[in-house]
Design a protein that fits this description.
Blueprint lengths: L3 H4 L2 H15 L11 E5 L4 H16 L3 E6 L4 H6 L3 E4 L5 H8 L16 H101 L5 H14 L3 H11 L4 E8 L3 E6 L5 E6 L4 E6 L4 E7 L6 E4 L6 E4 L4 E4 L8 E3 L6 E3 L5 E4 L2 E4 L5 E4 L6 E6 L5 E6 L4 E5 L5 E5 L10 E2 L5 E7 L2 E6 L5 E6 L6 E4 L6 E7 L2 E7 L4 E6 L4 E4 L5 E5 L3 E6 L5 E6 L5 E6 L5 E7 L8 E7 L11 E3 L18 E4 L9 E6 L4 E7 L6 E4 L5 E5 L4 E6 L5 E6 L7 E4 L5 E6 L2 E6 L5 E5 L5 E8 L5 E10 L2 E3 L5 E6 L2 H9 L8 H7 L24
Parallel strand pairs: 1-2, 2-3
Antiparallel strand pairs: 4-35, 5-6, 6-7, 7-8, 9-10, 10-11, 11-12, 13-14, 14-15, 15-16, 17-18, 18-19, 19-20, 21-22, 22-23, 23-24, 25-26, 26-27, 27-28, 29-30, 30-31, 31-32, 33-34, 34-35, 36-50, 37-38, 38-39, 40-41, 41-42, 42-43, 44-45, 45-46, 46-47, 48-49, 49-50, 49-51
Amino acid sequence: MIDWPQVFPWATVRAFASVAAELTEARRPFNLSMSKFLFTVWPLTGHIHPNLAIATELRKVGHQVAFYTGSHARGMVEGAGFQCFPLRKVDENLIEEMFLSPRGIQSASANPFQLRDRWRVITILSTALLILSLLLVFALTSRHSAVLARAAAEKSAAGESDARQLAESRQREAEKATIAANLAQANERTQRDIAVQQRDLAIARQLAVRSQSLLADRSQDDESAALLAIASIRIKPTFENDFALRQATSLLPVQVFAVSTGPSVFSIALSPGAHYLATGSSNGNVVRVFSLRRGKEIDELDIDGPCRALAFSPDDEYLAASGKDNIYIKLPRIKEKPQRIHYSSPFLSFTKDRRYLIAGSALFELPTGREVIRFSAAEKTSHAQISRDGETLFIQKSDGRITISDISSGKEIQKIEHLLGAEVKANFVNNGQYVAALNDWETAGVYDVSSGKEITRVKEDSPIQLMALTPGGRPSLFLTVSSGNMRMVQNPGGSELWRLHSDVVEAYFTPDGKRLVTQGLSAARVFEAFDGKEVAHVTCHGGSMYASAVDESGKYLATACNKVGDDPGERVIRVFEMAPASGSNGPELTKRSRRQTHLDSAGIRLGEHYRQEGAGPPSFDEVVRVVDATKGRLVSRVHHSEGTSVATFSPDSRYVALGGVFGAVGVYVIQTGKLQCRYSQEHNDIGVIVFSGNSRRFAVESRGTVTILEVANCEVISKIQPPHGRDAHDPKLNFDGSVLTTFGRETMGPFVVSAAQDLTDRYSLDPVEMIRDACARVTRNLTRAEWTEYVGGSAPFQKVCPNLQSRSSEGNVR
């Protein structure tokens, strides 16, 4: 009988089961890339061949395979190329007896019932071993597949990681390239911006120089110079165009009214209070009245033919117009029928008290229109004038004789004989003190009305064309015009004050006597009467000027010009507001003295926290000590080589500005004493140094000129001279340094009006405000042709003042 436990040792079965469990455990790391497999099989043909097939497949994929079987199967195993290990704990003789002997399994077919129980056990064991082997192979194969899948996944993940790293690297490189490109573009833009700024600066300076050259050429239009300066500032604000614009606009009054009229307007009149403007035509029968404040026409006056003369009463209440045969008087603002006087004259004027109207050789009482005096044709009256107080009547005869009479009594006050004929109109001072007339064609005299004596005589080299006397007061001035030479002399005495070569058609003083208005063929110019300084210049832009007028205050100037270009038959009437006149005709005149400003010998406390100590008034000591006034501690020593006459601390106590006795100004840092910037001027005496509230700008006053500079580098922003006739002092800057304010008294030549109050002048340093003010003074824009001439192709054409029309034709108005 066979001992089955010896044939099938259970320890071996358990060993196989343990190996299978270990191989199927997922948590144990197992590398199938080079594994070793040992097949344990019975040395029977049915057992060997199936396992050889499995072993062959394992060997194909790279594994090492061996068999643990009996020696009877060694030939088949080794013949297939596998290593064979013989059974050690199994008795092969027993196996042979069990399977191969007559009593074994092979003989069971002859006696099946004999081995039925034995076969059942063998079959179960064999089947169990086979299933265990299959499970082991399946586990190993599944594990191998999982490992391969994991390896593939890891490889794929590694590939993705490498790809991601490569992409990130490429992205970083692209970002670096983008940054480099952006830096290159920024650098290119910076260089381009610098080039554009340099180009703009060159163009701006070129336009500023051209503007100043046009101003130097008095034959040119001042508006063109102003427009070039505005265009220059719009391109880039500089000191040059700031100075050019201030020069150009100093002669340009502000236009407050403009209107186009018919071609026949030859006479205009401004009311004394500058409320109304009246125009009269030479071939029509309508007088038009405009309100300057409302900017539109408010009334029309029908007359009987061409308008010969226009005049407003001193209080602006009445307008008188002389037609062909009648004089019409009415209230400008009231729609009512005018009063008509059957008389006509080219000369109309009211007395100051509005009691009388003088019309040529007749005098009419107002408001009744009653004729008071009329001179017969036999008396050959060529000119008549009433004094401003309405008490004295001046009459010039055709033969040159002049009579002065008292209106109330009708008595003759004075008679002046032996004068030249009336081809040149004599001039009568409105207060009745002086009268001017021609002695001969080249000689004019001024006569004292009370005595009839000649007190001033002027001799010219050619015939005198015009004469004019200041309306009254002292000092009295007398003007003569001869062959284009205009000469102003002082009356009495005849000492020459100034002269000017200018083509003059008409000349007259403003009612206050402070200014002289001259009318030429195409321009009107306004001068300070005493010293001849030009204060306003108005042109007709290529057209002709037919008339001009001023109001009682001398503040407003009206001009009548013809258009050229589109509609040459039209007239353009403009009214300009001029800066207030300086000077005085009164007696309160004293000699001007130069005000000196310096430090006292004890030193002056100049700031809230600091004070400056130095030697002597104006000191030549080059070292200035800055002391903390609250602690008495020396803060710094400032070395100013020019000596010190003026010292000013900035509001933030960071800087001290020192003015030298030789005209140099240095700005120093208080804490270190180091020089921040330096500015030198041509004049030695420095009056005042002031800082703006934010300590970024400072102003230096010297001999009436105020220079504004940047604290950072002493770059000059602007140079400002007070209006002509101002003795400016005490300049002040606002907080941001955009506005300069100066104070001064009225002056007149070498005199100063000591009784007058100080006048305040405001100057804007803001380019935008300067452009806005300048555009209010010009009446047109540059044409494309002018832009091309002055600017060229370096900048595109643009309107210098957008609110104005371009001058496609001369004379266009707002």
